[in-house]
Amino acid sequence: MHAAAMTVPPTNKVAIVTGASSGIGLALSTSLIAQSWTVVLADINATAGAAAASTLGPKASFVETDVSSWTSQLALFKSVFTRFGRLDFVAANAGIDDKDAVYADFEAEEPEALNFKTLEVDLLAPIMSFRLALFYMRRNPDKSGGAIVITSSSAGLYPFSSNPEYAAAKHGLIGFARSVAPVLKREKITVNCICPALVSTNLAPASLWTLIPKDQLTPMSTIMRAFHGFIDGHKDLLTGQAAECAIDDIFYRDPVDFPSQSQKDMFSRDLGAWMSAYDM
Ligand SMILES: NC(=O)c1ccc[n+]([C@@H]2O[C@H](COP(=O)([O-])OP(=O)(O)OC[C@H]3O[C@@H](n4cnc5c(N)ncnc54)[C@H](O)[C@@H]3O)[C@@H](O)[C@H]2O)c1
After folding, report:
1. pLDDT tens for residues 108-135?
2. What is the rounded distance in angstroms from the CA atom of residue 199 to the CA atom of residue 71?
């Protein structure tokens, strides 16, 4: 029924990967290039990103981008669509851990404002990436839609007391993806989340890796399997999923159960009924 989706030959497919200078984004860019995708690596770290793109060869290029800036992301997406004329896959993957201590007491007489960079990069930026991906994927010449994968975390599924702002952002991404996915399915635009457990990258302080037993680390191969599952799953319009990646396993997690019929009825109500109240 959906055989028309993603009919573009693999060699013509265009991807944007944010946070591509390091870790998961770099591994994903490498694996897409191996499958003949055209990949635009986007990252705030220009030195590592430009070096990575040049190592990956002519189908890779790098655009310096601060995902927490709308202007910077707009310039990225616009340049990619202008250059290649299409956009098939976006990984909204850039992320940082907590940069402020919500628990800390302060020397000053009054509490200081928190630094919300973690929420800007980890929650607001993927929503901006989504908005831009949607805009350009809708303009793909063959109306083939596209696949958006957002990197959440296992910390989006469980409490994570060492990094509560990170946990808040990552929980938010899953709620966002599950909310938009059903609306966009008919446009062949899929939106899914990856929820990695601990993967050895540059995200956390280097000293962390000495504390964690090696057998509790999730290999990058599991994360890549989950990403490619969503990319390949686009043809069947697999959407609204949260893929928890732990060690060698991928668990597709459901939202919590409705505790009562009234809650089920409330959240199963037709979108049009809600929208009419919001005048959007
Ligand atoms: N490593 C893990 O254990 C783990 C677990 C769960 C989720 N994640 C998520 O995976 C994603 C990738 O992280 P990683 O583990 O590969 O870490 P990483 O630090 O190796 O890579 C993150 C990349 O994001 C880039 N980045 C940071 N701020 C940016 C900004 N404002 N604009 C553009 N780029 C920016 C960094 O420069 C870096 O290249 C993140 O969203 C992270 O939260 C990682």
Report:
1. 788 888 889 999 999 999 999 999 999 9
2. 31
Query: What are the φ and ψ backbone dihedral angles of 65, each rounded to 5 degrees?
Result: -145, 135
Answer for the pair 146, 133: CB distance below 8 angstroms, yes or no: yes
Whether the Cβ atoms of residue 183 and residue 271 lie closer than 8 Å to each other: yes
| CB-ligand 1 contact for 32 (6 Å cutoff) | no
Query: Does 177 sit in the ligand 1 pocket, CB within 6 Å?
Result: no
Q: Work out which ligand 1 atom sits closest to the CA atom of 27.
A: 16
User: Cα–Cα distance between 165 and 162 in angstroms, integer?
Assistant: 9
Catalytic residues: 166
Mean pLDDT of 208-236: 95
- Quote the CA–CA distance of 172 and 111 in Å, as a whole number: 26
Task: Establish whether residue 222 lines the binding site of ligand 1, counting it when its CB lies within 6 angstroms of any ligand atom.
Answer: no
Q: What is the CATH number of domain 10-278?
A: 3.40.50.720
Residue nearest to atom 7 of ligand 1 (CA): 153
Q: Measured from the CB, is residue 196 less than 6 Å from ligand 1?
A: yes
> Could you give the strand order of the β-sheet that contains 60-64, starting from the edge strand earlier in sequence?
60-64, 38-43, 14-18, 89-92, 146-151, 189-196, 242-246, 249-253
Strand partners, 250: 245
